[in-house]
Amino acid sequence: MTLEFNQIHRNDHLPGRIAAEIAREINDSKLGPGDRLPTEHVLAKTFGVSRSVIREAIAQLRNEGFVETRQGVGAFVTDPRQRLSIRIERSRLNDPENFRDLFQLRMPLEIEAAGLAALHRSPQQLARLAAALEKMKTADDWSTEGVAADLDFHRILAEATQNEYFLMFLGFIAERISSAINIAFSRAVFGEILEVTIAEHVAIYEAVEKADAPAAKSAMRKHLIGAASRVNLELDIF
């Protein structure tokens, strides 16, 4: 069966737009329960984006219940009768209070995830974290490649907890707040925000590499407080 995707424009939120295109094919029954999605390589070539953008789009589909992923095999369409998902419309996050509430939920989850990742990460996951960090450092376009690498870093960290629920919830939250990350970069002095953001991620990586859970949690807390300030959020932090 031939899949027909609409053209993706560069000013779109790429992962969300790609996820919407794949979801449309599923809703139109062009992809049915049990069908495997095309590979990351094929989808990346089809949409003209990097594989990290495709991974983010598939993570969104998984969080919304459209697909399930099987490590080393691929992503498969779920039966609509068995779909369980969390749904928060992106438009609701235009309300500053709703956005702040979601960010507050993110903080304790991701801080704990960093500590667990330091204790349970595999050598392969550590290598993938290093690769995502390197992509952040070398990205030519932070509106797409850099933000995708940033989100990939956090997704791998959640995966490294070896607890699928951290991956599920944090993946959902990260996808919803990614547009605000783009806004932060567009409004700030690029060099300054980039340098600080990368330094915060380096600190997290080094703590995870050393299997130092308290240091990983502390580094993640510092990063999230910084990230909140970069999107002008006032959080009740104790």
Highlighted features:
9 helices; single chain; Arc Repressor Mutant, subunit A; transcription regulation; 238 residues; 2 strands; 2 domains; Four Helix Bundle (Hemerythrin (Met), subunit A)
Number of domains: 2
CATH topology of the largest domain: Four Helix Bundle (Hemerythrin (Met), subunit A)
Which class do the helix and strand fractions yield? mainly alpha
Query: Per DSSP, what share of the residues sits in E-state strands of 2 or more residues?
Result: under 5%
Care to give the gist of this entry?
The protein is mainly alpha-helical. Helix content is 66%, strand content 3%.
Q: What do you see in this structure?
A:
GO terms for molecular function: DNA binding; DNA-binding transcription factor activity. Keywords: DNA-binding, Transcription, Transcription regulation. 66% of the residues lie in helices and 3% in strands. The chain is mostly helical. It folds into two domains: 14-82, Arc Repressor Mutant, subunit A (Orthogonal Bundle); 95-230, Four Helix Bundle (Hemerythrin (Met), subunit A). Strands 1-2 form a two-stranded antiparallel sheet. A hairpin with a 3-residue loop joins strand 1 and strand 2 (74-77). Helix 1 (14-27) packs across helix 3 (51-63) and helix 5 runs antiparallel to helix 6 (142-159). The longest helix has 25 residues, at 96-120. The protein is globular. The relative contact order is 0.12. The model has no long low-confidence stretch (mean pLDDT 83).
